[in-house]
Amino acid sequence: MSDLEQFVLDYVQEAGGLIEPPAYGVYEVLLPEAVARRWRIPAYLQFAFAETEREEAIHLGYNHPLVEQMVQEAHGRTASTRLYINDLRLDKSGIDELAVKSWVVLNGRAQPQKRATSSRVSHTYIRFNFKAAILSDEKQERLVSVLMDAHTGSRVANAGLIESRATAVAPDVTLASLPAAPLRWQPKGGPPLKAPLAEPTLQALLERAQTAVLQEMQADLAALQKRVSRFHLLDEARLTDYYNSLEKDLRARLQTASADRQPGLQDKLTAVQTERRHKLADLAERYRVQINLTLLNLLVVQQPKIIQPVEIANRSTRISVYAVYDPLLRQLEPLHCQVCGQPGHRLYLCHNGHLTHEECLAPACIDCKRVFCGDCAHEVDECAVCRQPLCRHSQMTCPTCGRHTCQAHRELCHANDGRPADLTVPAAATPAPPPPVAKPPPSPPAPPKGKTPPAKTTPKTKPAPKPLPPKGTPKPVRMEVILHQNAMAAYLLGKRDREIATRVWELIPEEGGILRNCTCEKGPTCRADGMILRPFEVRFIEKQMRDELAAFAEEYYLSPAKIHYNRLSSLNGQPYGVGRFELFGLWKNEAALAEARAAFDRL
């Protein structure tokens, strides 16, 4: 039985009609007189939902006027309802300790809040039932539903289990006495939400529910769009061929027509071109896929839950959140991103106290490393010299030009004739002054007779001074190298572990060698970025890669003694220090190196 058939038969029975079992796919229906007068149809009818040979049967479809009238009546009536989940055990303890063990905040830590106790609250779910009309070259309609959590503003993943347990039409004594749980989300730019069933809350949830439905139907819409685009191209090609032939015929007739017939033919040609544009525009509108969502009704489900405040803090920010335990699912609910509203198991703590996913973060400040979420991205600007992210707490405002710079490029914001210094152009080396002309040393006195003159000692030469980096060049303090089985990454770090530059070498035999990528202050003008190197033989590959690291360190005037080597752990994926530089894995595979050299030579 289809959804349409189920809806029509249930609605007729609810209206007081009698339905006989179907014979050959045809239902016999007897309606009350009042309903028949309201619908302006006879009291006795025969309904069919598929093609039939009975001429007296009414074939009902989604676009039939009687079905539309039933839908309008159902939509106009108060069909929303409320169900409850009773008889749940509410004796869970140690929720804060469970949250500390379960939650992962990458730049902070969760800890129990002093003198905080757990409490029982009433939690609310809302199921939105929509009629989705998909409009293209043909119309399709379907009923779609989505269950939303009124306290987090997100879609519920295990909706089937919750709805199957929501069978009580009245709350038990425990649930009826519980206060409503606090709302843990707020819409952007709207009034603050206070109650789960208040009109502003329902309106904000409706927008999120529509977004969730569209995301769920995205695969079906993409398949429909692909099919419709194919038909669109076929019809467009047919119209193009037709009007091309008309224009070709009219242009040929224009060339051979007499002077008195040419104006009429030119008008026909203009009319054909105008009609062609209108036809193509109508064709594009016809094959454009649209979707309209109409809210039919709501289902409110309430159940008891247990909450307890927990503290999440790092060195600069401290917030209090609720740990929520669901006695129905017997698990602790995850934290939710306050930018996209989706649950997450690995979150970051924004400097302004927002929990967010890594992909919902704004770029971190290059100086203080403060983390900001996407909603606080307005607090992160960029340095006028190096164009790196710079938050308002670390901005150095120049008193001369008023530009903002980071600590490393202070006073370089007007060094280039009033403009910021260009870090991509290497600064010219200052010529060294000529050495002073040394006077000849005085001749030593003659030794006394009978004594042997002392042996001449060679004066100690002072080591040549180390070259100084040009002004404006970043100054790293060390280089961390991470070795992998087919890759090597080098990170130049400044003070407070500020990342200055990153260079990655990856051995890809099928692409012709070692792919070298660089991310530094030079940007797209970096000559080291995007190059492919020809690998040496296996006995010389370590020297080749060691020379690459040495050249990278020399580029930033870093001593080779400040290079530290690490490997990635196979257990937790974290780097650990090793004493010396030693390649392994694909780097020591002579067959792979030979394949890479052969591919490089072919290219």
Question: What key phrases describe this protein's structure?
Answer:
single chain; 603 residues; alpha+beta; Dihydrodipicolinate Reductase, domain 2; Nucleotidyltransferase, domain 5; 7-stranded mixed sheet; 11 helices; 27 strands; 27% helix
Fraction of residues in H or I helices: 25-40%
Mean pLDDT: 84
Structural category:
alpha+beta
User: From the structure provided, what is the oligomeric state, counting identical versus distinct chains?
Assistant: single chain
Uncertain runs are none
| CATH-defined fold name of the domain at 478-602 | Nucleotidyltransferase, domain 5
* Main sheet overview: 7 strands, mixed
- How many extended strands? 27
CATH architecture of the domain at 478-602: 2-Layer Sandwich
Q: What is the 3D shape? A: extended
| Percentage of residues in strands | 25-35%
The value of Rg in angstroms is: 38 Å
Name of the CATH class of the domain at 478-602: Alpha Beta
Amino-to-carboxy terminus distance: 63 Å
Number of helices: 11
Structure explained in plain terms:
The chain is an alpha+beta fold and 603 residues long. Among the domains are: 3-77, Dihydrodipicolinate Reductase, domain 2, CATH 3.30.360; 478-602, Nucleotidyltransferase, domain 5, CATH 3.30.420. Helix content is 27%, strand content 26%. It has helices spanning 3-14, 33-39, 65-76, 95-102, 159-165, 173-176, 199-216, 218-256, 262-286, 541-555, 590-602, and strands at residues 18-23, 26-30, 44-48, 58-59, 81-84, 104-105, 109-112, 119-135, 139-149, 290-313, 318-326, 331-332, 335-336, 343-344, 346-349, 355-356, 380-382, 389-391, 396-397, 404-405, 478-483, 487-493, 499-508, 513-519, 531-533, 563-568, 575-578. The longest helix is centred in the middle third of the chain and has 39 residues, at 218-256. The mean pLDDT is 84.
